[in-house]
From TrEMBL:
<protein>
    <submittedName>
        <fullName>Mannosyltransferase</fullName>
    </submittedName>
</protein>
<dbReference type="GO" id="GO:0016757">
    <property type="term" value="F:glycosyltransferase activity"/>
</dbReference>
<dbReference type="InterPro" id="IPR001296">
    <property type="entry name" value="Glyco_trans_1"/>
</dbReference>
<keyword id="KW-0328">Glycosyltransferase</keyword>
<feature type="domain" description="Glycosyl transferase family 1">
    <location>
        <begin position="184"/>
        <end position="363"/>
    </location>
</feature>
<dbReference type="Pfam" id="PF00534">
    <property type="entry name" value="Glycos_transf_1"/>
</dbReference>
<keyword id="KW-0808">Transferase</keyword>
Length: 411
């Protein structure tokens, strides 16, 4: 069959997937949903499916065509045989060391060494100081991948120098974010029971690496000048943390809130939030805070969401934050520094003009991360890998979404 006669490309995503509670699962669901929305605008049509990585028993929707046990080494070899004898044209591996079995996820190598169809890899973690095992695994993934997607430009040098991945294989595509405008900030505060409050928020699966104790200490210092300040800690504890440590971290935070006398200023919303709830809380927020502790963190979906909502962001200076919040799009502070967080929030709350300018810069930058823009970039990459970059594509309707005009900046 001539490539010009192909009517569809079958793309399978190897990933965790809802209802498994995992940021990577949510990312994959969002990406696939957006590709499915715009795929009819293209010829060949991109047909998507999911191969789910499971660490427990889940009931998946019909998007999932196959499931593997994360901890069963044989499943990875069996998956390669399945794919080699299937109609799948391209496998997209969502990579995070912790979602694959074996030391540092080494079972994944059993799949890629035996795979005869092309695959691309989307990296959710790029370590600056990997163990030898971690370095070996990512180097091998890069060697065999047709393309390697990174969500942060500042990781490209790491991928070439530390992991020896050919630069012409590396593609930068930002972390996608949804955007639906739910209304005026003050009206949303009323809806959420936050009327008259200065709202600071953090959302995501909770665990010790989030550094929330430093955010709580900062709010305790803020409340004297801003008694109407509230800090929303939105999200349940990470299932892996609960499995290994129970709710000890959340209980520690609750005791800290009690001890600092900020029970009226710190609110825990202990649930796995829907996207609508996340966006409403973000759009009701005045400040978004990520006091994370890991300098190496290369991607943060929560930070991306807040930026796209045009919120003032105060964050510790992990690598992804340094890139996204450059050029006045946010405020960076030192790690484990509640005083620094306090001063950053205090100063921006005192300066309304600066706050509005920062919000506008964040929102304008965030437009380039909306899911429709990101999905288009992935489809272009799929065509390049499967059809070849110089191949004529019959009837390809290239509708550009790269400059969304649906929404302008809204105060």
């Amino acid at each position: 069959m001539r490539k010009q006669q192909i009517e569809r490309i079958n793309v399978a995503f190897l990933s965790t997937y809802p209802p498994r509670a995992c940021g990577l699962a949510t990312f994959t669901e969002d990406l696939v949903r957006e590709i499915d929305k715009i795929a009819p605008l293209y010829n060949p049509f991109v047909n998507t499916s999911i191969i789910a990585i499971s660490d427990d028993t889940y009931i998946y929707d019909n998007k999932v065509i196959k499931e593997i046990d994360q901890f069963n080494k044989k499943d990875y070899l069996d998956l390669s045989k399945y794919l080699n004898n299937s109609e799948i044209d391209l496998l997209v591996i969502q990579h995070e060391y912790g979602i694959f079995g074996g030391e540092s996820g080494e079972y994944l190598l059993d799949l890629i060494y035996n795979l005869s169809i092309p695959f691309t890899t989307v990296l959710h973690t790029v370590l600056t100081n990997p163990s030898e095992k971690q370095r070996h695994i990512l180097r091998e993934i890069g060697k065999y991948s047709e393309k390697v997607v990174t969500m942060a430009k500042n990781t490209i040098d790491l991928l070439t120098n530390i992991y020896e991945i050919e630069e012409n294989k590396i593609v930068h595509i930002p972390h996608g974010v949804p955007y639906v405008y739910y209304g005026d900030r003050e009206e949303l505060k009323k809806e959420l029971g936050l009327e008259g409050k200065i709202v600071i928020s953090t959302f995501g699966l909770i665990g010790p690496g989030k550094g929330l104790e430093y955010g709580i200490e900062a709010v305790a210092k803020l409340k004297d000048e801003f008694p109407n300040v509230v800090y929303l800690i939105l999200g349940r504890t990470h299932p892996g943390i609960i499995r290994n440590e129970g709710e000890s971290y959340r209980e520690k935070l609750l005791k800290m809130v009690e001890g600092l006398g900020v029970k009226e200023n710190v609110i825990f919303v202990n649930k796995y939030l829907t996207k609508e709830e996340i966006l409403k809380y973000l759009q009701a927020s005045d400040i978004y805070m990520t006091p994370y502790l890991n300098k190496e963190q290369a991607v943060s979906g929560t930070l991306s969401y807040a930026l796209a909502c045009g919120r003032v962001i105060v964050s510790t200076a992990y690598r992804y934050a340094e890139e996204l919040l450059a050029d006045g799009r946010g405020i960076l502070v030192d790690f484990r520094d509640s005083d620094g967080i306090y001063r950053a929030i205090r100063d921006v709350l005192r300066d309304e003009e600066r706050r509005k300018e920062m919000e506008k810069k964040a929102f304008e930058y965030g437009k380039g991360m909306w899911w429709n823009v990101v999905a288009e970039r992935y489809i272009e990459m799929f065509y390049e890998v499967v059809l070849g970059k110089d191949e004529e594509v019959r009837g390809w309707k290239k509708w550009s979404f790269s400059t969304p005009e649906l929404i302008t900046y809204l105060d």
